[in-house]
Every structure is written in structure tokens, then in C-alpha cells.
């Protein structure tokens, strides 16, 4: 009987801790991003980053990232372990010697990134990342990718 009470106490404590951790970030409300200053991309979604190396996109992307992504992916894109380290998103592409293959790798990574940010990440009904389509416009999404490329971890 004593073991049953101990088990029940541990179970209640674990449940309480889980609920606290699940709400540790508080009520997260995605912030819209002012993309004035970027060339508008139109209605058709691009399949690769049109702002690669663009200084305005880099600045806007840094702000958008810090307002919306840093809670889970870490300040300056350095993860604290909760979510993937986005500095390594296209790390496999950087070492490719053949330029055609390297650009194809970046394009494939861009497509993966865009799908992830637009639709979010849901597994078994649990939302690991909210969808940002409808919150961010295409310009904001690509500005964030430009920021992540600037923060790329190559070691």
C-alpha cells in the first residue's frame, strides 16, 4: 500500500511538472513582420531563396527570427536543445565541390525549409512548430532563411 501511495505521489508530481513545462513559453502569439524595403515576390511561391545575400532581408530576417523563432530555436539561432539547430539546416550543401550539385542541394533545402515554416511540424497530433503561413508573408519567410544562412554553422 505504501508503494502505491508513493507511486501515486510521483505520478501527480510528474503530471504537474509536465503541465508546467508544456506552458513554459507562455501563450506564444506569432508576430507579423514588416517587409517594407524588400522586393515584393508576388503570389507565386518561390522554390528557392530570392534574397540570398540581401542585406535588407538579413536585417528583417534577424528581427523576425528573434521575435518568432528564438523561443524554441535559440537566440542567434543557437539552439538550447528544444528544437533543431537551424544553423545546420543546409550544412551538408556547403562542402559539395560540384557547383551544380551544390546549388541543387541549396534549392532542395530551401524547399524543405519553406514547407516546414508554411505548414509547421505536427507529429501524432502534437504541434511541435506552428504553421506560419497566414502570419508571415513569403517575403518574411525568405528573410528569415537569409538570416539563417548568415548564421550557418560550418564547423
Concise overview:
With 155 residues, the chain is mainly alpha-helical.
Characterise the protein shown here.
A hairpin with a 2-residue loop joins strand 1 and strand 2. This protein has a two-stranded antiparallel ribbon with strand order 1-2. The protein is globular and about 40 Å long. Helix 2 crosses helix 6. The longest helix has 21 residues. About 12% of the residues have low confidence. The protein has six helices and two strands; from the N terminus they run H-H-H-H-H-E-E-H. With 155 residues, it is mainly alpha-helical.
Give the secondary structure arrangement, pairings included.
Layout: H1 2-22, H2 55-68, H3 70-73, H4 91-94, H5 99-119, E1 121-123, E2 126-129, H6 138-150
Measured as a percent range, the helix fraction is 40-55%
The quaternary state of the protein chains shown equals single chain
Question: Order of strands across the widest beta sheet?
Answer: 1-2
Report the sheet-strand fraction: under 5%
List keywords for this structure.
single chain, mainly alpha, globular, 155 residues
Amino acid at each position: 500500500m505504501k508503494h502505491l501511495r508513493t507511486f501515486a505521489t510521483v505520478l501527480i508530481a510528474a503530471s504537474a511538472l509536465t503541465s508546467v513545462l508544456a506552458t513554459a513559453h507562455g501563450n506564444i502569439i506569432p508576430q507579423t513582420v514588416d517587409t517594407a524595403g524588400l522586393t515584393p515576390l508576388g503570389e507565386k511561391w518561390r522554390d528557392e531563396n530570392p534574397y540570398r545575400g540581401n542585406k535588407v532581408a538579413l536585417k528583417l530576417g534577424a528581427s523576425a527570427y528573434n521575435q518568432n523563432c528564438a523561443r524554441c530555436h535559440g537566440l542567434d539561432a543557437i539552439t538550447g536543445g528544444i528544437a533543431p539547430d537551424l544553423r545546420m539546416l543546409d550544412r551538408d550543401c556547403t562542402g559539395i565541390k560540384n557547383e551544380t550539385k551544390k546549388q541543387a542541394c541549396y534549392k532542395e533545402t530551401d524547399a524543405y525549409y519553406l514547407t516546414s515554416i508554411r505548414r509547421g511540424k505536427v507529429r501524432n497530433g502534437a504541434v511541435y512548430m506552428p504553421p506560419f503561413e497566414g502570419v508571415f508573408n513569403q517575403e518574411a519567410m525568405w528573410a528569415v532563411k537569409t538570416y539563417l544562412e548568415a548564421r550557418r554553422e560550418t564547423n
